[in-house]
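Bit of a strange request maybe. I'm writing a small parser for structure token strings and I need a real example to test against, not something I typed by hand. Could someone generate the tokens for this chain?
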Amino acid sequence: MQHGAPRILLVALALASGAMPVAAPAPAWADAATFTIVNMDGAGEGFNDATPALPVGGNPGTTIGQQRLNVFQRAGEIWAGILPSNVVIRVEAAFDPLSCTQAQAVLGQAGAVASMLNFPGAPRADTWYPVALASKLAGTDLIPGTNDIEAQFNSNLNGSAGCLGGTGWYYGFDGNEGTNLDLLPVVLHELGHGLGFATVMNLSTGQFQNGFADVFATNIRDLNSNLTWTSMSPAQRAASAVGGNLAWDGHYTTLASPLVLGPRPVLIVNAPPAIAGVYSVGAASFGGPVTISGVTGTVVLAEDGIVPVSDACSALVNAAQMAGKIALIDRGTCNFNVKAQVAQAAGAVALLIANNTGGSLAPGGSDASITIPVVGLTQADGNTIRNQLANGVQVTLQLDLSQKSGSDAQGRVYLYSPNPLAGGSSVSHFDVSAFPNLLMEPAINRDLLAGNVDLARYAFMDIGWFTGATDAPIPAAATRIVANTPNPFNPTTLIHFDLAQHGPVTLAVYDSGGRLVKRLASGAMTAGPHALRWDGTDAHGRGVAAGVYVARLEAGGRVDARRMVLVK
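Reply from user aminoacidic:
Good idea to test on real output. This should exercise your parser:
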């Protein structure tokens, strides 16, 4: 039995037709997935665009079309190196003109072509599975001759002035997109939706498709009521989808989240007593870092003299009152980085941007000129602070090392649940409060690590991609250093790494000259995600000089390394 699945959007703020198989070049296991990219573009467009191009960022293509196809090949290789399946996964893809304005664009949209339930080998009865996963679990192609995933990407991102101010796609593999938008994480993101990171439930009514839950929804818990979605009524689920306190309750993702997510940025309101307390905020993808020591000051509402007067889309008329203070600015009308430029020019030491709709806010964009920390507030918290400004609001913006961003105390990662519903974005994404930013958030972020799928792989463990796999849940290709956070750092950083199997492990830090600085681990460790902290000291406990250092992991016959920057 099958049903079509919705297409999920990814939104940014501020060859002849045919098929090509894509697989990991050296699969870690016998049943590593194989992806086939089915070119749906017409002559001269999309993958068939013959416009000459210079190779960039490891992409050897010499035309725009070939570079686009190469990015899809690379994305297929990445997912193929993670997911097991003996059934070919067919992805039909095209570049078409999608919505794009100066302030916002739809980068891509994708979904499973069909959903299946009660197929041979289904782990859960009466539960919808995306067809690629269903075929994997059944061990056979359940709808032969039909593609598994349909995806569409925005061809308007070509440097045209009317689309995000002339932003274009970056086709490199190295994450060095500069002011353009990196296509590789967008493709990884959209394939993630087609592979199962999405619900097919009607979010407006709370009705499951034909009365049956999908496997994604079986992992959702409402933290307000502490009920799972499968135990709620349709009306309860509809309210939960906009309740702002929805979380992924999957076992593997919950275990891994503390190793991926960093400390939570918080806003501590010190005065007046009527609103004193700790408020959650979302760190922007640009601006200075929120630090452990933090920044303390008086909150001042920005006023630019033009209705709406508090959106800071032009120079402030109360700049004299803003110097040395923390600015409060409303979302809307202009890009986040413009607001930050205005606040910084007026002498603000930090910026709070209040959302103009329900849900959390992590301002997106890129602007190397912004050095003050920038964070987003919920609409409710912004109103709470605004209403007390006459009484003198004193706040501290800092990191809380006792909490992880984007998750609750149990490690359950929040899902995006703004009010009102955001069509194509609500629920089927991790929340924007996560930091470092995650691949499966509703908007693209420039700090994503090149080729990294972070917590999405563990969500796929939760929905069944590794059920029945003959190997360990994590393929050998995943034995690697995932990231170190923060980077740059002072004085400590957390080194995140994955192990494919139980066995001896060595993790050590070397200086740029290859000299051993400190051994952090030497002994047996279990398979799965791990993290170890380096405090910037050598083997004798002495602080080391600022500079570039290398974390080196040896495990299971594999060696991986990552550069880290210590600043002082």
